[in-house]
Amino acid sequence: MNVLGAGMVTAVGSSALASCAAIRAKLTGFEEVPYTDIRSQPIIGAPVNFIASEAKGPLRLADLAVPAIAECLEQIPASDLSRVALNIGMGHPSRPGPHHRYEVTATEVHRRLGSRFSRHSRVFLEGNLSTIHALEYSQLLLERGQADWCIVGGVDSLLDARQIIWLQRIGRLKRANKPDGLIPGEAACFLCVARDPHTPPSIRISSAAIERASPEEETDVRASALSRAMKRSIDGAGLRANDVACEITDMTGERDIGVDHAIAVTRTFLEPRDRLHFWHPAMSVGAIGAAALPCAIGLAWAAAVRRFLPGSHAMCVALTESWASGAVVVSMMTE
Fold first, then answer.
1. Which fold has domain 202-333?
2. By the 8 A CB rule, do 92 and 58 touch?
3. N or C: less crowded end of the chain, CB within 10 Å?
């Protein structure tokens, strides 16, 4: 499955290439947001200021998603969008807020785009792992000839009152007395994929894997699941671990998750090597939930297009919102 292009709306850019250039330059979109913590101290977030809208909830998600999807549509040389499946990933149902908000967002996105996408279009409510599920589903659609193109990605926002209160309650929010917490952000990141290769340079999705904790695992569960997902995705791509030159993560600065990731890396990359590059988009755009993994893949795509991807293969990982973890291996296409 080949990536034809990407669309992004993040705190540091209103398009995919602009966002990726800002992330590469280590620019940040952090600023005080109109919320305070339990000590009445201002909260730092990563809001998208490129969209002139004060909408909240489902309509805010639609505000973010529509321009990113429209950017992907520019890559599709067809007027008949009934052959285009729109597969959107959003937050996990376990997060606070009315669950019907995701249905409202999807309906609003279709309405605003004024396009009749394929009847096979779907919404995936798996948080950070949504994009992997959406990619697997899109692969089936393309192989069965039920779609010629798929637009796959995620939209999410942790910048509303319910999410902020929830993050504080479970101890994940970055505050003055918790320097290793996450910075809440919002973003929409989508990929345009097809079976036929695009004009190089570009990337293809070589393999993807999701692993969940087994009932017998009582310690280092997340590290175990992530290392298994990494190994499966590398094996599925027909590669050795040392063929992967770069890892793009969805880590958000949380200590426990950083430890889990470090353990998983040492279990996966066992052979001596000169260097393994690590890229962390959250350092620029904050924690963006379901948009994090497509952002990572989009960054790999931009790196291939602009020829700054170290090596020919990169791994994008998702591990932050549940005991399940996922990994996607992407490969650069040069011919």
1. Peroxisomal Thiolase; Chain A, domain 1 (3.40.47)
2. no
3. C
